[in-house]
Amino acid sequence: xxxxxxxxxxxxxxxxxxxxxxxxxxxxxxxxxxxxxxxxxxxxxxxxxxxxxxxxxxxxxxxxxxxxxxxxxxxxxxxxxxxxxxxxxxxxxxxxxxxxxxxxxxxxxxxxxxxxxxxxxxxxxxxxxxxxxxxxxxxxxxxxxxxxxxxxxxxxxxxxxxxxxxxxxxxxxxxxxxxxxxxxxxxxxxxxxxxxxxxxxxxxxxxxxxxxxxxxxx
Length: 218
Description:
Blueprint (H helix, E strand, L loop, with lengths): L18 H12 L3 H8 L13 H4 L9 H15 L3 H9 L19 H10 L5 H12 L3 H17 L6 H9 L5 H15 L13 H9 L1
């Protein structure tokens, strides 16, 4: 008889988290210390050269030759995370890891961007549809400076209403804003309308609209 050996299947290598997810996890850990959290919060809406209290926590974490847009995005997101309302901090402490580092989690492009978060706020009755859509269209036309100044109030409002934000997605979107704004803005708009449930655009109530469609089909 010929004996056959059974080879045990190789263990799957752990999936390495995206750099943006790793950075967010790092900042969340920093915010466990109130003094550090307060230091990071001083960077809200500020350019990097005015974030004096953030350097000691972020400089060694980021590449020395990092693009200025990427550096500002990292500083901005660190400050936004530190400025979360208490309810959002408490909820995050209860949640398990939601990054896409495990099988079965959403692909990166399916994770909620800022547009999807705005739609969730509309669906929950936190923001009126007209206000949310108007704000979203306004944001997509903003310069990087204007966007960074508006984000603190918006993100706080969303989180105060129980809307969770995907900080890693926002980090990458802000990183590319000045260099690829049209693509990011389109993703935000698509995310908004795909997530929106209170939508009155499915039925065109304009006089003659149905007749025009029928005529085209005949």
